[in-house]
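User: Could you check the structure of this?
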Amino acid sequence: MNTTAAQSPNSSAAETRAWNWRSRIVVFALASTSIACLIGHFYGLFTMRVAVPVVMMPAFVLLGMILLRNRRTANQITGIP
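Assistant: Sure, the predicted C-alpha coordinates are below.
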Protein backbone atom coordinates (compact mmCIF):
# COMPACT_ATOMS: atom_id res chain seq x y z
CA MET A 1 0.00 0.00 0.00
CA ASN A 2 1.44 3.32 -1.04
CA THR A 3 0.88 6.08 1.51
CA THR A 4 1.85 9.66 0.93
CA ALA A 5 2.99 12.24 3.44
CA ALA A 6 -0.47 13.81 3.38
CA GLN A 7 -2.00 10.54 4.63
CA SER A 8 0.69 9.89 7.18
CA PRO A 9 -0.15 10.41 10.84
CA ASN A 10 3.15 12.29 11.21
CA SER A 11 2.19 14.96 8.66
CA SER A 12 1.92 18.40 10.13
CA ALA A 13 3.60 21.74 9.70
CA ALA A 14 6.67 19.79 8.61
CA GLU A 15 4.89 18.95 5.39
CA THR A 16 4.64 22.62 4.48
CA ARG A 17 8.44 22.84 4.54
CA ALA A 18 8.86 19.83 2.25
CA TRP A 19 11.08 20.12 -0.78
CA ASN A 20 9.71 21.96 -3.79
CA TRP A 21 11.28 22.60 -7.18
CA ARG A 22 12.94 25.86 -6.07
CA SER A 23 14.72 24.29 -3.13
CA ARG A 24 15.86 21.39 -5.31
CA ILE A 25 17.34 23.82 -7.83
CA VAL A 26 19.16 25.72 -5.07
CA VAL A 27 20.64 22.54 -3.63
CA PHE A 28 21.66 21.31 -7.08
CA ALA A 29 23.33 24.65 -7.88
CA LEU A 30 25.21 24.68 -4.58
CA ALA A 31 26.29 21.06 -4.96
CA SER A 32 27.50 21.62 -8.52
CA THR A 33 29.94 24.36 -7.51
CA SER A 34 32.73 21.84 -6.94
CA ILE A 35 32.63 20.49 -10.49
CA ALA A 36 32.10 24.00 -11.87
CA CYS A 37 35.24 25.19 -10.09
CA LEU A 38 37.20 22.22 -11.39
CA ILE A 39 36.05 22.81 -14.97
CA GLY A 40 36.80 26.53 -14.63
CA HIS A 41 40.30 25.66 -13.45
CA PHE A 42 40.83 23.27 -16.39
CA TYR A 43 39.81 26.00 -18.86
CA GLY A 44 42.08 28.52 -17.17
CA LEU A 45 39.34 30.85 -15.97
CA PHE A 46 40.67 30.89 -12.39
CA THR A 47 42.86 28.89 -10.04
CA MET A 48 41.56 26.45 -7.48
CA ARG A 49 43.42 28.48 -4.85
CA VAL A 50 40.91 31.29 -5.49
CA ALA A 51 37.85 29.18 -6.28
CA VAL A 52 37.86 27.00 -3.17
CA PRO A 53 37.66 29.71 -0.48
CA VAL A 54 35.54 32.11 -2.55
CA VAL A 55 33.04 29.74 -4.20
CA MET A 56 33.18 26.17 -2.92
CA MET A 57 33.50 26.65 0.83
CA PRO A 58 30.59 29.13 1.14
CA ALA A 59 28.46 26.80 -1.00
CA PHE A 60 29.35 23.82 1.21
CA VAL A 61 28.56 25.82 4.36
CA LEU A 62 25.15 26.74 2.91
CA LEU A 63 24.52 23.09 2.02
CA GLY A 64 25.37 22.11 5.58
CA MET A 65 22.96 24.70 6.95
CA ILE A 66 20.22 23.41 4.65
CA LEU A 67 20.96 19.86 5.78
CA LEU A 68 20.73 20.74 9.46
CA ARG A 69 17.56 22.79 8.97
CA ASN A 70 15.79 20.05 7.02
CA ARG A 71 17.02 17.11 9.07
CA ARG A 72 14.28 17.46 11.68
CA THR A 73 11.63 18.01 9.01
CA ALA A 74 12.70 14.92 7.09
CA ASN A 75 12.65 12.84 10.26
CA GLN A 76 9.13 14.01 11.06
CA ILE A 77 7.84 13.19 7.57
CA THR A 78 9.48 9.77 7.33
CA GLY A 79 9.10 8.82 10.98
CA ILE A 80 12.76 7.91 11.26
CA PRO A 81 14.29 9.10 14.57
